[in-house]
Amino acid sequence: VYGNGEWHTRKHRASKRRTWRKLHLAIDAASHDIVSAELSMVNVSDGEVLGDLLRSLRRNVDRVTGDGAYDTRDCYDEIAAKGAVARIPPRENAQYWEKGHPRNSAIILMHQFGLKHWKEKSGYHERSLAETGVYRFKQLTGDKLTSRTFNSQHTEVMIKAKVINTMNMLGMPEYR
After folding, report:
1. pLDDT tier at 6 (50, 70, 90 boundaries)?
2. Is the pTM of this model over 0.85?
3. Would you say residue 148 lies in a domain?
């Protein structure tokens, strides 16, 4: 949740006493609402949290779009359990999975026409709306947490998400 300076400090082992948390958001592309949010420790991967994000939803989900970090069997299983279609770019050296797996068609399309074509055909561009949602979250509520304990930080994030959703309900900007 801290800015990239904190991430950079952690990655390159510079000494700082602060630690950082990872905020995972599930955003509805149509309404721009944050439909699910999870806060995790720095050592938890994005793919590990996807199941928690999806299982907490009480709504129908027709598609899940994520970056290559979600290209795991567990993520595809969680998405299939929700009855949704996965829009996840396979890794560059991706191998085929069992026959009939939906990921295989993405690999075939990418091998034949390239990543750009797959992105256009699959609607992967909707992921940019999620990135915009994260940007909006940070700009409107700040990129730091004031609470000290993990549980309080989790509550703080949920309150911030509710604030963003309330603002969305009041009206989004119109572009002409």
Report:
1. low
2. no
3. yes
